[in-house]
Amino acid sequence: MKIISNPTKDEIKNAARALIDGHLVAFPTETVYGLGADATNENAVSRIYSVKGRPTDHPLIVHVSSINQLGKWAVDIPEYAIKLAEEFWPGPITLILKRSEIAKDFITGGQENVGIRVPSHPVALKLLSEFEKLGGVGIAAPSANKFGSVSTTTSTAVKDDLGDLLSTQDMILEGGQSELGVESTIINCLTLVPKVLRPGAITPSMINKLLGSRNSLDYVDNDIKAPGMHLSHYSPKAKVEIGGATNPGEGFIALAKFQTPVGAIRLAAPETIEQYSFQMYEALRLGDQKGLKKIIVLPPSGSELALAIEDRLTKASFNKFINGV
Ligand code: TXA
Ligand code: MG
After folding, report:
1. Domain assignments of the chain as residue spans, ordered by start
2. 144 in helix, strand or coil?
């Protein structure tokens, strides 16, 4: 597998060609790194599942270059979903819509709906437009990490996590550390009122401000299967605990204003909530690299981006063995 740093236009074209030829290309997005495959190529998509070790009934998000591609993948798109796409794309929001014929069961996990997103990272956008110039219609890309583990926000983390299983013709495009550090907000757009399936950097208040009270957001959603909602997810090898006493030798992640407990190993000291989400996954990975058994985290409080951080850290803190994931 080749790692291509700061890819040039030609190198991105080659990567788009590799996707068309059925290979995997991991690429940077503003949220986390994605492990991409041609979303219409069943064999290529099945490699995503085997490389990640992910159950095949977990649907994949299809990435496209612009809102103009939306109609290829989705039908019966509600007006509020168009508004969300126009306002927030390219950007960290995924819309779940009724699928078109092109979205096969191997993308949707057999469901009648499909998740679509236009990422804003320049490398991702160039890759998508080169891919579409070659006749591609969408790139399926889950976070580029082993199933259930911590998402990757750097190309090094992608290589460490998945490198062994990538072939010589697969690629990793390097594009710096993902600036947001937390996966996209996922919105279920199948109902009269949009519902948050996964909180992210596009926050409820941003959405409500755009849509007004008629379409204001709802939270609880058990209507459709969104396996990212599994209790245990985003977990490092170390046991993650929210709050509580920190013993010497244990990892500690909290805003800078919280002092490091005596003897604890500080893994991150972000000054702001934005820095917290930017550093969070790398800090959890660092804990594993140091061989720590336990990491104590203090999530920031708040209703906006803080909610997304709390969601991921809560899921990271569930014991995966108990939950069987
Ligand atoms: O920021 C992101 O969304 C990143 C970057 C690479 O774009 N992608 C990402 O993909 O986080 P993934 O597969 O790691 O998480 C997507 C979540 C999964 O929990 C999946 O089950 C859910 O979205 N999902 C995808 N398509 C869905 C659908 N059609 N219906 C319900 N849930 C869906
Ligand atoms: Mg993921």
Report:
1. 2-211, 239-322
2. coil
Percent above pLDDT 90 for the chain? 87
Q: Which CATH architecture has domain 2-211?
A: Alpha-Beta Complex (3.90)
Q: What is the pLDDT confidence band of residue 244, given thresholds at 50, 70 and 90?
A: confident
pLDDT at 148: 87
Strand locations in 72-194 (E): 74-75, 93-99, 113-117, 139-140, 171-174, 185-188
Residues 6+ apart with CB under 8 A from 85: 67, 70, 95, 118
Per-residue pLDDT at 325: 37
Q: What is the pLDDT of residues 110-127, one digit of tens each?
A: 999 999 999 999 999 999
Give burial (CB, 10 Å; 0-12/13-18/19+) of 303.
exposed
> Number of helices (H) and strands (E), helices first, in the chain?
11, 15
How many residues can be counted in the chain?
A: 325
The closest of 175, 109, 179 to 142, measured between CA atoms, is 109
Question: Rounded to the nearest whole angstrom, what is the distance from the C-alpha of residue 194 to the centroid of ligand 2?
Answer: 22
- Three-state SS at 306: helix
Over residues 99-112, the pLDDT tens digits come to 999 999 999 999 99
Closest residue by CA, ligand 1 atom 31: 226
Ligand 1 pocket list (CB less than 6 A): 29, 31-32, 34, 58-61, 94, 96, 108, 111, 113-115, 117, 119, 141-143, 183-184, 186, 224, 226-228
Four-residue CA torsion sign, 88, 91, 92, 94: positive
